[in-house]
Write a structure and sequence with these properties.
Distance between the termini: 25 Å
Structural class: alpha+beta
Number of helices: 2
Helix content: 10-25%
Shape: elongated
Radius of gyration: 14 Å
Strand order of the largest sheet: 4-3-6-7
Order of helices and strands: HHEEEEEEE
């Protein structure tokens, strides 16, 4: 059940990416993470010069929790597990290709 919900949410975020991929603008970003010891870990997202007001940053957490359209580019106090950062265009008119990156916090 969790996998089905995860897949549906990911599809909802990314939309019909394959059909639009050929004509959309790429989103370039990087994700760095640091182990903070007893405080867990942090993930920092660098949008590589993109205008943050045109993009939506989303975080999929290990237990199936989601942070949609996050207002920050840094997430702190993260527990062990796999996280997925999904960056999409805020508006279809901007024509950005959805992009994602997986981060494993150990």
């Amino acid at each position: 059940k969790w996998l089905v919900i995860n897949s549906l949410v990911f599809f909802a975020i990314c939309g019909n990416a394959k059909a639009q991929q050929a004509s959309c603008k790429p989103i370039t970003f990087s994700v760095a993470h640091r182990n903070l010891g007893a405080k867990g870990a942090s993930i920092t997202i660098d949008l590589k010069g993109h205008d943050a007001s045109e993009l939506s940053v989303n975080l999929v957490k290990p237990q199936g929790e989601y942070v949609f359209d996050a207002k920050q580019l840094e997430f702190n106090n993260l527990k062990k597990g796999e996280y997925t950062v999904v960056v999409t265009g805020r508006s279809e008119a901007d024509n950005y290709c959805p992009a994602y990156s997986k981060v494993v916090v150990e």
